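chain below, 309 aa
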Amino acid sequence: MKSIDKMTKLIKIKKEKTEEQEVPVEKAQDRLEVLKRIEELEREGQFDIDAEDDPPTIVLTPENIDYLRKKTTSKLKRVFANKVGEKFLDDLLKNNKLIIKQINGIENLNKVNTGAVVTCNHFNPFDCFAVEKTFRLSGQIKTRKLYKVIREGNYTNFPGLYGFLFRNCDTLPLSSNKRTMVEFMKAVDVILQRGDFILIYPEQSLWWNYRKPKPLKHGAFKLACRNNVPVIPIFITMQDSSIIGDDGFPIQEYTVNISEPIYPDKNLDMKESKEKMLNQNFEVWKNIYEDFYKTPLEYTTKKEELIDG
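prediction:
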């Protein structure tokens, strides 16, 4: 009788624990607000505005940036930061904070023997780690570096570990200071001409877990044309995993899709060539999106109504 009572208690405890585990995690209010903001921005056609508040920007001046890591202190910080960053990336993957389900077209990274501009859709602060991991798996890391273009405030005013990585892990911060941007352009030319890669987000905004490709800006393609190097389009698609994150939303499983390199058209002038590359890049992303999600690419953007009058 006692053994039956004991077993009944154990079953009851196990049932209570199971029920407790099955209680859904409440979705974080800040994430819900971000999703609402994304819906508003899409309706308004403001695709190049971040859906989340960025850290206040402190202006980056030329004396406060060593783009090419010529100083000894800069070199040492870079080595240490990349080791920390690699460990951080491994931990993300190990703990399923970042899930890379599949990589398609990795051979397209290895078709390029020169410098290149890598373009990618921007939907999560960790998407750059997915590109970094792909770059490492391709073997290009043995002979090349992958630089990441970042916003000014992320470099000058981002706190903690992320701020340290932003400042030292082969990043190229933009600046609102014209003199600094002159140095930025010089550094980009050197980096691409010596054969390294530069990751740029041509959408110019981060929309959390947004699956569609956004309209593209010309900057990445201008840099490619200026240096006569290809653009390598990457479009990351995603799907819900069975793991619920701390924010109450499913952690996404990423498929990294790498397309054929797009080269500048030497028969066109700079303006025409960069426009052609932009359109080709967007068409590639659009096709990947429609093929993966099995739906046509459509936006909720309000169309202006013509009023007779």
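The longest strand covers residues 231-244. Confidence is low (pLDDT under 50) at residues 1-21, 305-309.
thats it, cya
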